[in-house]
């Protein structure tokens, strides 16, 4: 048997080998991606989760298994793990991965500081991978530090947008009924072809539903079902709820799911997932500036008027970064740093240093826009431009920490109407960079 890393636990052969990997304490940003402001719901049950992640991703059409495909330079499975581990009442999360991907998975857990994760070797099929995950949670596994849960949640590693609300619903329904699963209305009508390739019959769409994940079970029910499974079930089956019905005579409670439960299956789904993540982390902008900066206040008001759907807050860098820490807790990944009273990049440099020290940018790219104002009467344009071109070197340095930096030079004329036009143009450029997080802007000095 392969030696385990320090702190790992695993059952002896012939059961699946479990490698426990515990990340370091999460940064403050590792809480919920959406709905972070809400008080977390509690579940009185002892709950664990099993995520099969041994697929090859044939339908994706790329050499990398889809669960490891990057989205914003971070593997897809990391987003799913974050969604599960942010739920404090899920005690253990068991991930089934193939032997050849075990080291890569361990690296993902360590790099992104995931917690409560244990790894088990995947089987050759989805059902065999789930069974291995369930075995890792069984009471009869020697040397395992995992405890048998009352309820186990089964979820796909490539469904990254699952929310705590639906996890709680299926877990509590499983406690009452023995099994539960998320469903959604069918989008397309299901038809059955005949042997000669012609239509045999179709199903009435209104009477049927699509089975989704997550699903939850009393652990004893689903474990007993898998122990009784035939080889045919383990090789060709995909529906866990059906196994509970077939072998344990437990009828699952069906819970209406949300559209966010969709599964990343095809290459185009990666782009859709990236778009959703960008939209979610672009819903808040923090403007870092001195309370006395009048032009900064004008920029703030312009952003609020131009971006009605985005929460815009402001404040100074003070008290050793306590204000910034609060912003981090509120899940803000977009910063506008106004430089007026200080030297060209002093405030921006302070902000960048605080962000680097906080380790905040591990999970999502953080956008920082360094804003500078130009009054032609006080500073020649050429000199101002020359001073601001150091943005390139700063951007190159912080990009390694997943911080995307660009500069914005706003013309500050005496004419009020021209000033408003400059501010609106600047707000538009800020919104574009924050929304797109486009690498083409990194290190650039935009001019409004």
UniProtKB/TrEMBL annotation:
Catalysed reaction, written as an equation: D-ribitol 5-phosphate + CTP + H(+) = CDP-L-ribitol + diphosphate; D-ribulose 5-phosphate + CTP + H(+) = CDP-D-ribulose + diphosphate; D-ribose 5-phosphate + CTP + H(+) = CDP-D-ribose + diphosphate
GO cellular component: cytosol
One GO MF term: D-ribitol-5-phosphate cytidylyltransferase activity
Membership in a protein family: Belongs to the IspD/TarI cytidylyltransferase family. IspD subfamily.
Function statement: Cytidylyltransferase required for protein O-linked mannosylation. Catalyzes the formation of CDP-ribitol nucleotide sugar from D-ribitol 5-phosphate. CDP-ribitol is a substrate of FKTN during the biosynthesis of the phosphorylated O-mannosyl trisaccharide (N-acetylgalactosamine-beta-3-N-acetylglucosamine-beta-4-(phosphate-6-)mannose), a carbohydrate structure present in alpha-dystroglycan (DAG1), which is required for binding laminin G-like domain-containing extracellular proteins with high affinity.
Skewed-composition ranges (Low complexity): 9-23
Listed name of the protein: D-ribitol-5-phosphate cytidylyltransferase
Keyword hit for Transferase: yes
Organism of provenance: Molossus molossus
Domain spans labelled D-ribitol-5-phosphate cytidylyltransferase C-terminal: 283-427
UniProt subunit comment: Homodimer.
Cellular localization per UniProt: Cytoplasm, Cytosol
């Amino acid at each position: 048997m392969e030696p385990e890393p320090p702190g790992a636990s695993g059952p002896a052969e012939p059961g699946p080998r479990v490698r426990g990997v515990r990340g370091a304490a999460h940064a403050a940003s590792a809480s919920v991606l959406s709905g972070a402001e809400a008080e977390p719901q509690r579940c009185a049950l002892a709950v664990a989760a099993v995520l099969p992640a041994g697929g090859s991703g044939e339908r994706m059409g790329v050499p990398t298994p889809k669960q490891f495909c990057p989205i914003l330079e971070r593997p897809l499975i990391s987003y799913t793990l974050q969604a599960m581990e942010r739920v404090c009442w899920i005690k253990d999360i068991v991930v089934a991965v193939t032997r050849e991907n075990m080291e890569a998975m361990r690296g993902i857990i360590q790099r992104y500081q995931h917690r409560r994760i244990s790894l088990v070797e995947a089987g050759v099929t989805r059902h065999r991978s789930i069974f291995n995950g369930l075995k890792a949670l069984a009471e009869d596994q020697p040397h395992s530090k995992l405890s048998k849960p009352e309820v186990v949640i089964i979820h796909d590693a490539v469904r990254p947008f699952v929310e705590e609300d639906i996890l709680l619903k299926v877990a509590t329904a499983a406690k009452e009924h023995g099994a539960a699963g998320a469903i959604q209305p069918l989008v397309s009508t299901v038809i059955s072809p005949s042997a000669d390739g012609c239509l045999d019959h179709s199903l009435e769409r209104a009477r049927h539903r699509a089975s989704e994940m997550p699903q939850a079970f009393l652990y004893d029910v689903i474990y007993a079902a898998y122990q009784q499974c035939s080889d045919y079930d383990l090789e060709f089956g995909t529906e866990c709820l059906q196994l509970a019905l077939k072998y344990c005579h437990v009828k699952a409670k069906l819970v209406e799911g949300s559209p966010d439960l969709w599964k990343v299956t095809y290459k185009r789904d990666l782009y859709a997932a990236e778009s959703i993540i960008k939209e979610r982390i672009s819903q808040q902008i923090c403007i870092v500036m001195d309370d006395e900066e009048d032009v900064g206040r004008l920029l703030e008001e312009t952003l609020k008027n131009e971006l009605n759907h985005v929460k815009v807050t402001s404040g100074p860098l003070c008290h050793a970064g306590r204000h910034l820490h609060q912003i981090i807790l509120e899940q803000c990944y977009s910063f506008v740093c106004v430089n007026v009273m200080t030297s060209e990049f002093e405030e921006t440099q302070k902000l960048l240093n605080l962000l680097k020290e906080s380790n905040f940018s591990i999970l999502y790219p953080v956008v920082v826009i360094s804003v500078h104002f130009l009054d032609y009467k006080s500073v020649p344009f050429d000199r101002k431009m020359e001073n601001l071109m150091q943005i390139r070197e700063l951007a190159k340095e912080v990009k390694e920490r997943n911080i995307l930096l660009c500069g914005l030079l706003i013309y500050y004329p005496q004419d009020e109407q021209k000033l408003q036009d400059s501010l609106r143009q600047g707000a538009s450029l800020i919104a574009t960079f924050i929304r797109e997080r486009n690498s083409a802007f990194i290190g650039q000095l935009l001019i409004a």
